[in-house]
Design a protein that fits this description.
With about 375 residues, this protein is α/β, with parallel strands linked by helices. It has helices at about 10-15, 15-30, 35-50, 60-70, 90-95, 115-120, 140-150, 200-210, 235-245, 250-265, 295-300, 330-340, 350-365; strands spanning about 55, 80-85, 100-105, 125-130, 155-160, 175-180, 190-195, 270-275, 285-290, 340-345. It has 2 domains: about 10-105 and about 110-245, Aspartate Aminotransferase, domain 2, CATH 3.40.640; about 250-365, Aspartate Aminotransferase, domain 1, CATH 3.90.1150.
Length: about 375
């Protein structure tokens, strides 16, 4: 693609000196799991994102699963309500912990989970709420946190797309992050983390991610005291994350500026609905709602402009989540949005002129 939807090479080039130095140190030490690179990353991540503690894990999916396990939500009779508009890994993580996912509808102007709909779906089997901060934007987390507290439910936040948007831990004990390569803070493979402000929670999460084993020397470190999983974030990925993390706020600012250019050019255009964003958004993706979405996408592809669809099918219609017993027509806003959404190119170093070129191509499509 002449203008791809995302390009990771500029970020790698900007930080090359740092990650090469980190890799050299790793190879010299020859210590690849639960070592000093992870310890440094966890400390700096917690400081950067205004959290008490950060616990590195193997992916965003396992971050959610570990949180659910620590919260005691591991049985099929326990239901976890989350958004229908998100990556399937959110639902997969609930199922992996042993619980049953159920889905709430979305706000059609932001595509964030609708707090009213989520609250209305709480039932006798509901054990937790799992709101998603989608596309880099916080959902109505203050209201959802109040709903969870009033209903005595666990609250686990999926902030896998929203690194640095706000201090999420002030709303609850569990915040899951993903470091998939295309995220605002990504590594060069899978990776994730959990944020919390509570020392006791952080201690338990570290134990669960490491097979439930005890800390210290033999025999404790070879005895599984709780039901854990293997979910460790390895040192190799931390070499890159430690190089990228100092740039996160700057890269987020660049994303916001480019998103404003899209807003200015596409706002009010026929055939297009620009999503309503809050000032806190870190603009992980730039998503529009488009009439004749698939024809627009074909048109842009022919011009060498990459696009994406995040996400083409709401989770309640995935066969893997049939246990939710939700059918077509149950979540109309999510179903309609899935037919219209289109992600346009966005990454921190994307030249502004190329943003304008993409926007002009979208406008030409509808003018014709």
């Amino acid at each position: 693609m002449r203008i791809p939807i995302v390009n990771l090479k500029p970020s790698l080039a900007e930080t090359r000196v740092e990650w090469e130095r980190n890799l050299a140190g790793l190879m010299e030490r020859g210590f690849f799991i639960l070592g000093p690179e992870l310890a440094r990353f966890e400390e700096e991540l917690a400081r950067t994102l205004c959290a008490g503690f950060a616990i590195g894990v193997s992916s965003g999916s396992t971050a959610i699963e570990v949180c659910l396990r620590d919260a005691g939500i591991t049985e099929g009779k326990q239901e976890v309500i989350t958004s229908a508009m998100t990556a399937p890994f959110t639902g997969v993580s609930i199922a992996a912990a042993g619980a049953t996912p159920r889905f709430a509808d979305i706000d059609p102007e932001t595509l964030q989970v609708d707090a009213n709909d989520l609250g209305n779906r709480i039932g006798k089997k509901t054990a937790a709420l799992l709101p998603v901060h989608l596309y880099g934007q916080p959902c109505d987390i203050g209201r959802i946190a109040r709903i969870a507290k009033a209903s005595r439910l666990k609250l686990i936040q999926d902030a896998c797309q929203s690194h640095g948007a706000m201090p999420f831990t002030k709303y609850g004990d569990y915040v899951a992050l993903s470091f998939y390569p295309t995220k605002n803070l990504g590594c060069l493979g899978d990776g994730g983390a959990i944020l919390t402000d509570k020392p006791a929670v952080a201690k338990r999460l570290r134990q669960i991610r490491d097979g439930g084993r005890g800390s210290g020397g033999l025999p404790r470190n070879q005895i599984a005291f709780v039901k854990g999983i293997n979910a460790r974030l390895d040192e190799l990925q931390c070499c890159y994350l430690n190089a990228f993390l100092p740039q996160l706020h700057r890269w987020n600012a660049q994303r916001r500026q480019l998103a404003r250019v899209y807003d200015e050019m596409l706002g009010g255009a026929k055939g297009i609905q620009v999503l309503r964003r809050s000032p806190e958004s870190v603009c992980h993706l730039y998503v529009i709602r488009a009439e004749r979405r698939d024809k627009l996408r074909d048109y842009l592809t022919k011009l060498g402009i990459g696009t994406g669809i995040h996400y083409p099918v709401p989770l309640h219609l995935h066969p893997a989540f049939a246990a939710a017993k939700q059918k077509k027509g149950d979540l109309p806003h999510a179903e309609k949005a899935a037919r219209e959404i289109l992600s346009l190119p966005l990454w921190p170093q994307l030249p502004e002129q190329q943003v304008r070129e993409v926007a002009e191509a979208v406008l030409r499509f509808y003018d014709s």
